[in-house]
Write a structure and sequence with these properties.
single chain; about 450 residues; two-stranded antiparallel sheet; about 40% helix; globular
Amino acid sequence: MTAYHDGSIRLAAFVTAGPGRPGGWRYAASESGWLDAEYYKHIARTLEHGLFDMAFFADILAVPDRYQASNDSQLRYGALGSLRLDPVVVLAIMASATRHLGLASTRSTSHYEPFEVARSFATLDHLSAGRAAWNVVTSFQDAEARNFSKGEQIPRHKRYDRADEFLEVVFKLWDSWDDDALVLDRETPLFADPDKVHYIDHKGEWFNVRGPLNVARPPQGYPVIIQAGASDRGRDFAAQWADVIFVSHDSLDSAKAFYRELKERAKAHGRDPRSLKILPAATPLVGETKAIIDSKRQTLSDLVNPHAGLSTLSYHLDVDLGLFPLDAPLPDVEVPGVQGHYQEVREATARDGLTLRELGKRYGSRYEGDFVGTPDRVADGLERWFREGAADGFTISAPHQPGGFEEFVRLVVPELQKRGLYRTQYEGKTLRDNLGLVRPQSGAWRAQAAKKHKVKEPT
């Protein structure tokens, strides 16, 4: 197939500002520093030493209570959303400890306002000298809606309509300052040129925002945009707007099919497919010998209670899996939540004949497939996915923090470098530079928006 990358693997790190994996936080080598700034600084330095493109934080705006109509399993087992710090604040801490590492955080278009998101990420981009990224999500859980004074979530068919307009407003706000608007002339005096700072006067279905932003245009023009939608509408939204796509697959074949489809969708939106970086999830379990790996895998698996994994999966699917027998397969269900996760677990269930109990154990650990083994075997798996057209790089999760990242940097990164697949130094100063992405000129978003619907111009 056509090569859509430059021959160099891109790496993001999926970091959790909380315990994350229900077995990982119990592992003896795990550290419990989730409320300690030094914990995140150490992870940031480790990732920068490994020349990662960015640290990526997902976010949850509630303690999930979808499984068995209770948050008991989340809190008891330290599952996905049991504790989550505000990732933008964490990234500010990590920015102070690094010079090159990209800094990516989720912010929901369902519960935040465009002005506050534009301001937060413009601020982070300035304070990090051009390393910020925004993971755009449309929230789906009623538990999250109830934390924002809403009785229920926005209907599925409306979430991306709101997100489309949300992005337009954010881009307008980032563009409300010309690149040279901040003059800082003490003698004249002229702090900022009023002719180069503009009201946006946006009036739309969801938002009425006057502007301008009270932060100068970001160093990257626009912070990097990340998206993870897997439904048909989500894929089209990602192909239209995203610089980076985060996705999860259970097989190489499904990853290749997704990669081809999203690159084609990007072309249909008039984009160069190489401007869209697809970084599927990978959770390497690496060790110096097979015996070490087997011991780690068994220990980590033994630490996962099936209810912990099912609680997390219930959150992702927005389906109470506690209603179904543990020793029967996952049934066909209507999924209001994340379609990609449902496709992934349906594929695994059908292929391996898993019961719901077994699926819960696996979903809470997920140490299978091409990314488990000695350093050369893990590098083999990453290289295969990369060369066979399944990925432009990977979003690396650690089986436990921070040790899983330390092991990957120490053992796998040198192997990738030896094969000529990975950088030996950072290429540029900003995250866009290091991802091989151009800096957008003011107004560049309009070409992307026009592919979807006519953009309302300011009056």
